[in-house]
Structure formats: C-alpha cells, structure tokens
Amino acid sequence: MMRIILFLAFIGLFIPQLLFAQFNNFKPGAYILDKSRQVQHTAQLKLKNDKLLIAKDKDGKTSKLTPKDIYSFKIEQQRYRTASGFEINSGFSGEIVDEVFVALLDSGQVLLMRYEYTVKSPTSMGAGSFPQAVQLLRGAKSYSTPTVIRGNNSAKENAAIKSMLGAYVTARPDLTKLLTEGKIWHGNLQAFVHALNTGQPFK
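The structure assignment produced for this chain is given below.
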C-alpha cells in the first residue's frame, strides 16, 4: 500500500509539469529580423503572447524577440507579421494597439491579417474575459495603419473595405465589379484577397 501511495504522489508531482509542457512546447519555425530581412533564421519557436516570441537555436540557446525585432516569422504552417496603430474595442471604449504579432491569412499585393485578443468583463458582470478578433487589411508595401475589419457588416465597414482595396483591383475587372457592387464583406473577404493576390478567379 505504501508503494502505491508513493507512486501516486510521484505521478502527482509531474502531471502539472506535463500538462504545462503540452501547451507550451516549442515548434519548428523560422523568423526574419527587421534589421536584416535578407536572412532567415531556422529555430524552434514559441509564441508566448502578442508581444513576445521565444526562439531556441540548435544549441539550445533561447532569445526573446518582440515585434520591434521581427519582420516576419512562421511556426509550422502558420505565418505571422507585425501591425500597430490600429484601434480595437476594449470593453466600453476603444484602445489603440501598439506593435503586436498578428497571424497572416494571405499575402501578395495586399496583406490580410488577424489579431486575437481578450476583453475583460465589466465589474458589474463579474470577473472574467472573453475572446475577440479582428481582421486587418494593409498594402504589402504600405506602412500605414491597417484598416480594421470587425465583422459587423455595417455600411461604414463595407465602405472601408471598398476604399482600401479599390486601388489594388484596377487591373481586375471581375474583382472591381464585385467591389463596386458592394458584394465583398467580412464573410468573403479572405477569398477576395486571395483571388487578388494569386490572380485566380474569385470563388
């Protein structure tokens, strides 16, 4: 009986560590530093949060990287870029986001990105938080503040999509027609951007 108790106690010590490791594993990837965009560094990567990336080289040495350090990176098949200066809804008010890592959904002439964050519940509703996400649109060669797409399908948001993408579809009559007729919205935006970036028909 004593052996069983000791064994269970031993397992109990390591289960939390195993669970922690399961959700915090390094994964294969690569990154490009902003100061040397011609060089790609292969490493094991761990995205701690929207402002911190941990890289581990082949010798086991780790480095902490922030959005100011990074031009782009990839963890397995998911690509990431950085974005800043855009506004998100934070509870009952707006908040301007400083430089953060964002998931890259499509790239080419236009970058379509996704930023995920959490909003704390008002005190009157009890403690807690709930997840939110926005899509971001920006020209690949532009360093302007990205256009924020919240997915509310409002007239203002659809007008912002049309305004931002209009200059990029002039050589694509098929896409220009869809955009002009107001048929592009949050729900089919990724398919539209992919068609634009790849030269393929919109599906």
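Interim note for the steering committee: The mean pLDDT is 87. The chain has four helices and twelve strands.
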